[in-house]
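Interim report, section 4.2 (structural modelling).
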Amino acid sequence: MFSKWWWRKRVGFEDITTRVTPECHFWVHWGASHCQTRAQTRGEWQLLCVPGGQPPLWKFMDSIGSEGLQQGEEALSCPEEGLPRPSDSSELVQDCLQQFKVTVAQLQQIQASLLGSMEQALRGQASPVPAVRMLPTYVGSTPHGTEQGDFVVLELGATGASLRVLWVTLTGIEGHRVEPRSQEFVIPQDVMLGAGQQLFDFAARCLSEFLDAQPVSKQGLQLGFSFSFPCHQTGLDRSTLISWTKGFRCSGVEGQDVVQLLRDAIQRQGAYNIDVVAVVNDTVGTLMGCELGARPCEVGLVVDTGTNVCYMEEARHVAVLDEDRGRVCVSVEWGSFSDDGALGPVLTTFDHTLDHESLNPGAQRFEKMIGGLYLGELVRLVLAHLTRRGVLFRGCPSPALLSQGSILLEHVAEMEDPSAGAARVHTILQDLGLSPEASDVELVQRVCATVCTRAAQLCAAALAAVLSRLQHSREQQTLQVAVATGGRVCERHPRFCSILQGTVMLLAPECDVSFIPSADGGGRGVAMVTAVAARLAAHRRLLEETLAPFRLNHDQLAAVQAQMREAMAKGLRGEASSLRMLPTYVRATPDGSERGDFLALDLGGTNFRVLLVRVTTCVQITSQIYSIPESVAQGSGQQLFDHIVDCIVDFQQKQGLSGQSLPLGFTFSFPCRQLGLDQGILLNWTKGFNASDCEGQDVVSLLREAITRRQAVELNVVAIVNDTVGTMMSCGYEDPRCEIGLIVGTGTNACYMEELRNVAGVPGDSGHMCINMEWGAFGDDGSLDTLSTCFDASVDQASINPGKQRFEKMISGMYLGEIVRHILLHLTSLGVLFRGQQTQRLQTRDIFKTKFLSEIESDSLALRQVRAILEDLGLPLTSDDTLMVLEVCQAVSQRAAQLCGAGVAAVVEKIRENRGLEELAVSVGVDGTLYKLHPHFSSLVAATVRELAPRCAVTFLQSEDGSGKGAALVTAVACRLAQSTRV
Ligand code: BG6
Ligand code: GLC
Ligand code: GLC
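Predicted structure of the assembly:
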């Protein structure tokens, strides 16, 4: 029917002809029996033999036409003899354009499939790989309208090959806008496809050039970076590029933090001091810049070079976020949506060709049907096809028509615009080197309309999916929502938005949607996010400043260790020292030959306990916890000791021990000057106790007097033991190397085996004696003042013993919560926490217990559980608050553990030096709720000891049975010794 097409000398085809059979040669005839098409692999050609006839030949022409020309040096010439038009040209047109028609059912299928992919991605489901990414953006709320300040905005990737810099002023007053100043720069093609550093250096140069023309200072500028590519964000200013999309393909950027790359480039440039505060996707900028209206604006839609949407999702639905409250803006990245079932039927041969020839074949299939970068190209492919088929331009294409990228979005928008008129279309086509007739103009307009209509309809189907998602997550019957729209396709294309809106109404009839074009192309929104990020960064700086004094370095800890050593030596010599170094009259650890039944009391920790300890070849314990009401702990001494005896009597009755006078060991966890094993003068109360008329008294006598008052009970008090000593003895029963006892609970203290010759005031020069250091009082002479913070001072001042137990008040469970509370109060007063609102709860003393600290810092707890704990305390939290409270707890407990470690290091070094050893292996028996329950305390103590006492190998043994068992063992040893002296 047709004569022939003539391809003149072209490199690409010459290459090809050398590889094909003689039948398929340089001349291609209609009706040829062999055709050639391109293989899947780019650049590889293969022979496709098909039976003769036109359709396969058309396929051949479609598939190789423009590609061949791209490779060629010269364009396709006009046919030798003018091509006759096919008689059925209208049918051809019809067939071609029909491919772009999408039915409502197909749109509904796309809507449903996209919704499914979104929900799958939200659930964090990895297999099958979701077709959209659903990336959390770290933007948690839509703007309040109160944001203010001057911001630089840099936009990269939204609009083709251009980069925009803006100067945005936010007034903080609703309705009062200042027009932003902006400048656009064209990014050279070689930069878009070159090395990443080149691109970021180019951006930094553009920034400087723009700022040079502004009356602004070179210092302290805050920048919001609009970077419109799929990125994994891990914070408002941390964002890793997943993959380039659209026309960009710079090397060395994928997998990198683009904020850091920009910061580096700005620094290399060196002209301005700019802080890159936030990074956002263009959809987020569009959403955040939306005018506050009557209904909430919760969706940001961009149809520009590419297309994408973001919306406000309930945080609890986003599996990758560890959040159960509030909302987070999620960038859907719907450009990557591809689903063979749903999209397959609407993909045309032109879509396939376009994808094939793009920079990223196989990727962003949905975007390639909608985005502005591709609409012109789709139109060009259709026009080239129709021209080759002789339907357009008398079958005579121009080189431009056959060159990729020659028809731009602007051309399409103008040609389709009915108001532009045929003359304008004519001019555009002429500029492409074509000679259009009137009928060509009309057909070209039809092609543009068809391609764009499909784009708008597909976009509507996807938007309808997002609206359905929003409606579902809000659990609302009807959704009233505003969609902020941005991008050149939305802004400049005459019919795009109206088709979009109409189709959305059709596909999501239950949603009442209004569309709000974004102001300033999203720049304002980026500035809004930047303002919020800048505020958060300022808060972080204040937090860091506040916590800095809690972060102790090696030198500070070594100084604590040295001071402790000095105080120990002085205390042992009987000189004035904050360490009392009290002799305990415990000279030996158990040897295993002790036997018998003993009673034990354990007073001074979290619980008051009465115990029955049976020592045979093993130790069996029966115990009961009794409460000591605060009124008793802080009432009269008589009341306290009567209460203790009542508890013992009750215990004896319950255990069937009434009438028996078992030897009793008394763990009394307060500083006592002992004159013997069964005599201990209470020096002063510590922790929460303050019973009157006890200080200066022998505690054993007070107990015996109470026993006498109670009558009818007989008790044989043999030994009084500090809890540190009880713990050391208890662990020493298992491990003979245990020569140190450590308590980190309500209070803190340590004891250890000292050479008797070093202990002033106790006769004898050989052997050992356990010394109760009472290290809680370390620093009461002011030696810790340089480390003490204003929060420590507040806690001390509000305690029942101001100025006393300064070391203990920096370490132990009774005080850490209070330190945290005082820091939180301070941060609230700075506006850093709880939106600056002081609550009654936070003003309440002791609302923070040790167990909260331990729970909050537990690794296995998700942030949402941390928040639940804090909310139980009545604290009104945002998600940023939760993280900051956690950091406060960490700083406080870390300092505590390190100080405790410095103390242990002093003790082990003392023992090593006492014995003149190069290296010492020693065990520490430890007890106390803070040490045992806190997730990191014990390892931090051990790490500090390793650092400060490298010549000591220290093993920490946790006491499992409390120091009551130790008290019983001390009693047993005493009984054994008493017996042996009688014998
Ligand atoms: C226990 C002892 O095991 O540890 C107590 O039996 C001691 O006497 C206590 O005071 C320390 O821990 P807390 O956390 O109870 O003060
Ligand atoms: C591309 C990008 C996306 C962006 C969109 C619109 O799809 O991947 O991040 O939002 O284009 O610019
Ligand atoms: C307090 C007491 C001390 C005790 C410690 C641990 O510091 O004064 O005796 O060992 O708490 O309970």
